[in-house]
Design goal:
The complex is a heterodimer of chains A (235) and B (266). Chain A is mainly alpha-helical and 235 residues long. Chain A is built from nine helices and no strands. Chain A has a single domain, classed as Orthogonal Bundle (MetI-like fold), CATH 1.10.3720. Chain A is flat and about 70 Å long. Chain B has 266 residues and is of the alpha/beta class. In chain B, β7, α7 and β8 form a beta-alpha-beta unit. In chain B, α4 runs parallel beside α6. The chains are: A mainly alpha (235), B alpha/beta (266).
Amino acid sequence: MTLDFSIFVEYGPHLLMGFWLTIKIVIAAIILGMPWGLVLALGRRSRFLIPRLAATSFVEIFRNTPFIIQVFLFYYVLPFYGIRFPAEYVGTLALAAFGSAYFAEIIRGGIDAVSKGQLESARAIGMSDWQAMKNIVLPQTLSIILPPLTNQTLSLIKESAILSTITVHELTMSGMRVQGEIFRPFEVFIMVALLYWGLNETIAILMRKLEKWSKKGRTSNQDSAETLKKEDVVR
Amino acid sequence: MTRDNMETDAFLSLKNITTTFGSITALDDISFKIKKGEVVCLIGPSGCGKSTLLRTANWLTPPDKGSVTLDGFSIGSKRSKNMSRKEMTALNEVRARMGMVFQQFNVWPHLNALENVVRAQLVVAKRSRKKAEDKATKMLHDVGLEDKIYDWPDNLSGGQMQRLAIARALAMDPVLMLFDEPTSALDPELVSEVLNVLRRLADDGMTMIIVTHELGFASQVADRVAFMENGKIIEEGPPNEILKTPKTQRLRLFLDKLNITAFTSH
């Protein structure tokens, strides 16, 4: 069988529109999901029962049910309560909720990974729990959680394909539409796969750079480099 | 100040403290007082409760029973879980007046030396950045880290990290300093640089409680040495009496053991 990629002259823009919507949905889901994940993570370690219980239930429900079922529930159940949004919005919300459960666990793991002594020394000097979190623990958490955060972001991008089932016209849906018109599944889905792959690879590379940068600050700093030089001169 | 304090002259007072961890009794109905300007060294075998006693003083390890007062102010009498917001704020204020130095230093690795000393001044004491940085620079100078001001903790030796931790605590203008085995995690050749800082603090009249295994140091700087075992203070008094003519068999055994270890390790 011969592959004919000339079809993308005509149908390429259609796929790119879907691709652009995928990007927008994922960005919105991350912007909503990460802060909410942080709230959930902090809620789970609250000293009060109700926030602890609420956050734990949320995380456990969204982590332990299939994403496609969550999407259906958001899409078909919300209108019953008079909440009507376009499918893209509902999809984004579902993706954000699903992602936030995982983000919460990643952030909680990161907080636990910072040694207990760090929190204790902050509390001992008079910081409140939140001040200690904000100034001492969370900044150290960041470099620990970057790699799993990257994984989860890549996974969210792939999960976003499921939104095609509720008529969201994102990349996968665009691919199916184009394929439905021209019956060339190989070319179309290879192109769709390439677009997902390209997006994920770009993010992975950017995050690796960010990881390096976040570790760089501490160990090699200019002043100590200068001190070394001075010592060399003395010798 | 309450009447009780004027009578007993106690600056920090721990009353009838009992702390249990599961089935283990870490502190067994201990009462402990320290006067202003006094330096007390807590000694004893590991697991005797001396660190727990120190951590009770600033409510880092809330006891099951008992109360703590600093300069007449109650620090706490409840598990922090059950504290109201107001009580928590009051506790944080008292903690800011008590410096604590840990065995594992617990300097903050994501902040450079200056920022380690500056941060709590900004956040807790609400000082201006200018004022906090001036203070930090002075404190780092006092502990001999004037050429490490912009260094990151990762680039500091253990002794330097511990001196940084001391500077961080002193910048808050504490009225009392708590040291939890400040030299136990240090290489032997780095111990003296930290002890020298402590010695100078003692000379300046700082009120200090020091948990330590350095008996030589204790005999030099302490006004009083308290020997603990099994969650109780077994014997206490001036270092010369305590360390040279112990009254109890247990302390005698403890000192013998330390001397033998000291002998064989040199």
